[in-house]
Input
Amino acid sequence: MDTTNTPRLTNTAGPDVLKAVNLLYKAAHSSGVPGPTLELVHLRASQINGCGPCVDSGARSARKNGETDERLFAVAAWRETPYFTAAERAALALAEAATRLADRADAVPDEIWAAAAEHFNDEQLSGLVLWVAVTNFFNRINVTTRQQAPQNWG
Output
């Protein structure tokens, strides 16, 4: 029997976990980082991790909050497109580095941090780092337990 795409758990987070995550969500979203930037960071980290539910919900949420299809379709290739501001590019680079920690000895090089620090203050940098961590947290749960994006959103 092929169970490659069968979810391993149907309930991946109990009420206590959801309460804690909601507090982290609020902290990241009240750090002063623009909402669209947080949406892009979430989408990019989720793409890197191959998290179908987070890519799906992230793109839908961003679109619902006014993001254009042009920019959403280009997130995976943000370096090669003209659609993102310097601040968004710095946030995306930080998100990629913090998501791919094992890819290089200096996981988040000084130049990536410095570029982000040019556009975001300490509170905002903390919010970005926290949001990338929360995104990676959910990505890892969903990928490990083989959660699928919903087939019908109605």
The chain has a mean pLDDT of 91. Helices lie at 15-29, 35-49, 52-64, 69-74, 86-99, 110-117, 122-144. Residues 22-144 form a domain with the AhpD-like fold (CATH 1.20.1290.10). Residues 122-144 form the longest helix (23 residues).
